[in-house]
Amino acid sequence: MKKVDLAACPVCSKLDINDEEAFLDDLKCTIKAYGKNELIIRQGDVCDALYMLTQGSVKTEMITENGNILGIEIIKAPRPLAPAFVFSDNNHFPVDVTALEEVEIMKIPKTEIMRLMMTNPDFMSSFMTHNANRTQFLTNRLQLLSIKTIKGKLAHFLFENSQGEGKPFEINRNQTELADFFGVARPSLARSLSEMVQEGLISINKKEYIILNSKGLRELLV
Amino acid sequence: MKKVDLAACPVCSKLDINDEEAFLDDLKCTIKAYGKNELIIRQGDVCDALYMLTQGSVKTEMITENGNILGIEIIKAPRPLAPAFVFSDNNHFPVDVTALEEVEIMKIPKTEIMRLMMTNPDFMSSFMTHNANRTQFLTNRLQLLSIKTIKGKLAHFLFENSQGEGKPFEINRNQTELADFFGVARPSLARSLSEMVQEGLISINKKEYIILNSKGLRELLV
DNA sequence: ATTAAAGTGTAACAGTTGTTACACTATTGA
DNA sequence: TCAATAGTGTAACAACTGTTACACTTTAAT
Is strand D less than 7 A from the beta carbon of A194? Predict the structure, then answer.
């Protein structure tokens, strides 16, 4: 079995690394590989186990009832996928999960997770914290979506990623992906971006952005 | 101390009821009362304890950066408030919490929660499930917000609450609250509602709604 | 019963976003 | 190097929503 970097995983980081092999040997789980662009999990699938992404990276996206795509996030190994849903009463996945490259998924039964939490306080604590952080992530998405104007969303998003006025920073999404992330149409996003550049609020060079006028940018949030 | 209906609380329901008194006696916690319309928790407050709503009801709402209000939900006792955030790395409350009537809040330190989870597997399981359900709730909110048209949101919302075509059902929110819930302007919501009534899709009498044409209503989601 | 407050219906207009279409540039693989 | 593909810039118009304003109805309180 390929070695997994347990220490890098948010829910396993506190495990005693010396026990790692024993830990993995004891664990009853199955591993499955997926190719690039393959659909790993479909929105609505029953979630009866913990899906741990051990190799590669995936994207998650929510398909709304009117067929639009709402980008959620990009996840890199090692990290669990939607861990909270293993325990929910209505245990269905809320998103589509698609492989961005060659991917390996470890599927750990719910009973095993329960056993780990019982016997391993550190695992339990990490698991709780990770789920709490996921909730916070969703809350942030909610906040972003609730900003009504595209420029407002952009301002919020740019402030979140910037280190300060004048300092260049990278956004590793293209316009189409950004538009999906915001839940808006691509040409509308492009229009807002070019207007903000014309107004001297920001500058854009490929995927490198600079905030030129944070005061003016902040006014878009008012 | 006023008796609390532990069995009705989602995270305590599996506790042995015979131990209830001992459970509450052992628990190191403080209780505080709030009056109607009093602000109990402010968005951004540090969350270093579990806030358990033991009496009354509250509403939670998110204030966006542009000052708009996004209604989240109405919570009735007994239920914990934002339990997941006790364990998050950035443990700040994501919402304002306001008392809708006379309210009592039990504040349980994080260390006590940890102890309960360690010593009481049923509590742990309930706590996990409850947090998972909360995540699912947020996901649903996200899905609702990501529907772009007001009529689409309404259709989604009405289907969610209806028992079927022709069967009346109650919506216990007025138009202003519904508009906040959807994150739209009140007159815009009223316009959409009256158009949907005129088109024969639904009927409205005070807070009683009926879906008259579910086929037509479903088309608003496409 | 009367008054104040809350909630609803509606209109006109401004503003923002979506849609569609097409030209152009950049990137990638053969 | 070339061709194919992906990504970007932009325009015109339609569609939808927000804003503001005001009349009206219902509810709650005194």
Answer: yes
Amino acid at A23: F
Residue A32, both tokens: 């499955």
Q: In chain B, what are the helix, strand and coil shares in percent, each to the nearest 5? A: 40, 25, 35
* Cβ A43 vs Cβ A94: under 8 Å: yes
d(CA B63, CA B72): 10
CATH classification (class only), A6-145: mainly beta
**B6-145 and B148-219 have identical folds:** no
Tell me the three state secondary structure of residue A123: helix
Does the domain spanning A148-219 belong to CATH 3.30.470.20? no
- Would you say the C-beta of A188 is within 7 Å of strand D? no
Nucleotides of D under 7 A from a protein CB: 7-12, 16-21, 26-27
Residue of A41, A92, A128 to mutate when probing chain B, most B C-beta within 10 A = A128
How far apart are the C-alpha atoms of B66 and A150, rounded to whole Å?
Answer: 12
pLDDT digits (tens, 9 = 90+) for A164-204: 999 999 999 999 999 999 999 999 999 999 999 999 999 99
Domain ranges of chain B: 6-145, 148-219
With beta carbons under 8 A apart, name residues in chain A contacting B88. Answer: 129, 132-133, 135-136
For residues B140 and A70, is the Cβ–Cβ distance under 8 A?
Answer: no
Residue B174 (CA) to nucleotide C6 (C1'), in angstroms, measures 11
Q: Hey, what are B137's tokens?
A: 């709730």
Q: Do residues B130 and B11 lie in contact, with contact meaning Cβ atoms separated by under 8 Å?
A: yes
In tens, the pLDDT along B7-52 reads 777 777 766 655 656 666 666 788 899 988 888 998 889 998 999 9
Q: Shortest Cα distance from B67 to chain A (angstroms)? A: 7
Contact residues on chain A for B65, CB-CB shorter than 8 A: 143, 147, 152, 156, 221
Q: Which of strand C's nucleotides are less than 7 A from any protein C-beta?
A: 6-12, 16-21, 27
